[in-house]
Task: inverse folding
């Protein structure tokens, strides 16, 4: 492999990694509040289909339409998260089962597919998409130029989001409270923190981020709608949170690493480099997820694990 | 909790509520789906009527419903059995694929065996392949405490790509290479006629052998869970892993064996796909059907009771059958999954409402709780 191919894989890894960064950050915030959301895949598909619908049906300046499409994806993901929040936080349905139900409800044979058909947007090329912006005019700087300064606005926004989430989590009072709610809801409650409100808000934010991540598929990565186009990326985002030990900085690294695994197959294929069957490259991100999850659960890694102590457990004052 | 609702656990659930709540949940699901249908320009009453006739009353509809129900019965049992011990095996989908790979290999290799032996070998071949595939997340969970939900799910995708590789991208043993056309349109080798499982024909209705096998399996699993030491230990591990450890139950072995049995059941779903219906390994068809994921819906609606899985698999099988039969502009495919999801939401919510007493929060301490029935109406 020459350096050209390596660079092409890395540039494409940024694109493939971006939805993982965004959905992963959302899931991280949700899990930090003590709620496990296994509905990410379904929420991403809902975000993808609504964003694509807005970008196909609305007329006006491209920038405005893209902005509205992004907003629609936030609302769609958030709406799915509201169902999950109501079921798990208010009436205490098992979080695992509720999350799976969301993914089936919204997923490849569910509402996202239904809406795609009702709105009749399947199989046509997108009218609007995020194009790469030559940031600071440094596009032609060797290696770093194409990697960091020639991405689209969505990617730049995702970097801002990373910084914002890290600042929020570690440097603000609500961020501190959020971590307290996830670690020990009873103590947080005694401190006067509204546990239910924190869990609702961060579940909704997580869902909105998942919807946003879905929008990246139909507005930038592959501007077309097909059923189930996220193809398991939502699940990898959930796994990322675990082997990033619930830390945003490690999550970003992991997301781009998995971007590399996802980018490898398509990049080599367009250059007609076939070493292994294409199915192997397609399966690679999933195989690597299994390996990474196993590695993260070894006793070596367990010493610095950061699982929020109340993850998956509903909180009620009455039953303690 | 500081919300406006107050939720308390009931000391004992009244008997009538156990029946009233699921029925009310289904009714509510029908109303919500009806609203969605209206909002997208369809008449809910005629849609429901069409679905009923496509699933039950029209020619051959009931047989077709059993064709869809059979794999869901197995994958439903797969999920119900593992979930019962709170080991969340989401890998039924991949274990089904591997079962189909295993069963078709067995059927192809042992094609000249006497028919009864051949059929038994196919069942076991699929079960073994499913077990081996489930053993990966099981061992990781038992010995490294790796989250089995995610690993079993990831392996679904891996199994899917593996199946594609066998038929579309290699000269594997499973692929038909006998005719020149087969290289343009890759297909799997068709099994010998003796390898197709005998169904029970009653008039025009055909009961697949797999379904009978599944009912037998459901009864055995119920017995295993309710009346054996194995089942008792399973329930202890599920309800309190700590208590299980202190009482000397070998938790790790239990996790591996339960997951393996669960995977084996999903593997038989794959065997049945080959033996009962397809007679050929068809990666695309298996993947589009999503039987493994639907099995989770079936198990959750059956509240993880194996016998209830039989009934629910017929219900969801009928729904899926109607979905495929009516597929078209007036009945988009996505409607089936959407309806499954809505039913899940209402049934899961309803089940909790039956176990808890829900009322509005009053300021006074000694307030009289509002009965759960009025609360159901208020909550919906």
Result:
């Amino acid at each position: 492999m020459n350096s050209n191919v390596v660079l092409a894989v890395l540039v494409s890894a940024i694109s493939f990694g971006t939805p993982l960064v965004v959905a992963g950050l959302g899931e991280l915030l949700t899990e930090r509040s003590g709620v496990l959301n296994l509905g990410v895949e379904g929420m991403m598909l809902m975000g993808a289909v609504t964003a694509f619908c807005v970008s196909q049906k609305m007329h006006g300046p491209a920038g405005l339409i893209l902005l509205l499409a992004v907003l629609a994806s936030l609302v769609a993901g958030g709406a799915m998260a509201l169902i999950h929040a109501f079921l798990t936080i208010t009436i205490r349905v098992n979080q695992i089962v509720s999350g799976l139900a969301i993914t089936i409800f919204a997923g490849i044979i569910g509402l996202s597919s239904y809406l795609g058909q009702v709105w009749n947007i399947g199989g046509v090329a997108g009218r609007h998409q995020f194009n790469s912006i030559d940031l600071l005019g440094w596009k032609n700087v060797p290696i770093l130029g194409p990697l960091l300064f020639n991405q689209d606005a969505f990617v730049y926004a995702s970097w801002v989001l990373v910084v914002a989430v890290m600042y929020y989590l570690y440097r603000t009072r609500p961020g501190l409270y959020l971590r307290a709610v996830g670690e020990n809801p009873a103590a947080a409650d005694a401190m006067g923190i509204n546990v239910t409100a924190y869990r609702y808000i961060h579940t909704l934010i997580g869902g909105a981020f998942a919807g946003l991540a879905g929008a990246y598929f139909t507005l930038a990565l592959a501007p077309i709608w097909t059923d189930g186009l996220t193809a398991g990326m939502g699940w990898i985002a959930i796994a990322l949170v675990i082997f990033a030990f619930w830390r945003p900085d490690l999550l970003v690294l992991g997301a781009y690493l998995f971007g590399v695994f996802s980018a490898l197959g398509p990049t080599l294929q367009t250059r007609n480099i076939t070493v292994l069957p294409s199915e192997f490259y397609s399966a690679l991100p999933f195989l690597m997820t299994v390996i990474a999850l196993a590695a993260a659960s070894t006793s070596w890694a367990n010493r610095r694990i950061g699982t929020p102590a109340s993850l998956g457990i509903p909180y009620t004052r009455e039953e303690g | 909790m500081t919300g406006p609702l107050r939720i308390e656990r009931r000391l004992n659930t009244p008997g009538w509520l156990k029946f009233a709540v699921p029925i009310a949940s289904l009714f509510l699901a029908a109303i919500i789906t009806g609203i969605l249908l209206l909002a997208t320009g369809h008449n809910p009453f005629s849609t429901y009527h069409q679905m009923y006739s496509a699933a039950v009353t029209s020619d051959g509809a009931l047989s077709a419903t059993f064709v869809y129900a059979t794999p869901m019965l197995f994958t439903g049992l797969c999920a119900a059995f593992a979930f019962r011990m709170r080991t969340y095996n989401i890998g039924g989908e991949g274990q089904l694929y591997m079962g189909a790979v295993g069963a078709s290999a067995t059927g192809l290799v042992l094609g000249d065996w006497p028919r009864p032996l051949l059929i038994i070998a196919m069942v076991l071949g699929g079960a073994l392949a499913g077990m081996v595939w489930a053993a990966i997340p099981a061992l990781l969970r038992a010995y490294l405490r790796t989250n089995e939900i995610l690993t079993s799910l990831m392996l679904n995708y891996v199994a899917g790509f593996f199946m594609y590789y066998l038929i579309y991208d290699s000269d594997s043993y499973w692929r038909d290479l006998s005719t020149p056309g087969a290289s343009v349109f890759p297909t799997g080798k068709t099994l010998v006629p003796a390898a197709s499982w005998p169904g029970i024909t009653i008039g025009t209705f055909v009961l697949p052998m797999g379904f009978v096998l599944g009912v037998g399996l459901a009864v055995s699993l119920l017995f295993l869970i309710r009346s054996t030491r194995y089942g008792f230990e399973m329930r202890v591990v599920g309800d309190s892993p700590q208590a299980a450890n202190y009482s000397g139950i070998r938790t790790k072995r239990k996790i591996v064996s339960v997951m393996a049995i669960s995977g084996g059941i999903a593997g038989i779903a794959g065997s049945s796909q080959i033996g009962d219906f397809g007679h050929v390994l068809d990666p695309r068809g298996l993947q589009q059907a999503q039987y493994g994921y639907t099995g989770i819906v079936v198990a959750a609606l059956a509240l993880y009771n194996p016998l209830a899985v039989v009934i629910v698999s017929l219900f969801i099988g009928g729904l899926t059958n109607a979905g495929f039969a009516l597929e078209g502009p007036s009945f988009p495919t996505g409607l089936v999954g959407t309806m499954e999801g809505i039913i899940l939401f209402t049934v899961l919510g309803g089940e909790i409402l039956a176990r808890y007493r829900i009322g509005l929060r009053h300021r006074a301490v000694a307030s009289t709780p509002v009965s759960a029935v009025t609360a159901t109406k208020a909550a919906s």
In short: The two ends of chain B are 20 Å apart (CA to CA).
